[in-house]
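Q: Got a minute? One more chain.
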Amino acid sequence: MNISSSSNSVNISGNIKSINDFQAIKTTIDSLKSTHQALTIHIEDSISITSSVIGYFNKIVLKDKIDLKLRIGNEQLIELFDDLNLSTLFNVRKIA
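A: Always. Here it is, folded:
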């Protein structure tokens, strides 16, 4: 997995599958949420996501009151968020 950020946007490419991936995502988002109340996360091609990342996204939306937008490239991952009833909470959209 590769991660980069600029302003209030985070770009993730590759599969999100390990605790190290979670730590990289958390560290990046933590540095941005101190200065931004709205974040857009682009998950370009991951076909999976760990429960720890989902839980972290849940925390930043519900507890930290961050306006989170997920832009996802893989249809299966979008369906996962639909199945978990998280598409509305995380404002999930397909990358055009």
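A: Helices lie at 19-33, 51-62, 75-83.
Q: Perfect, thanks.
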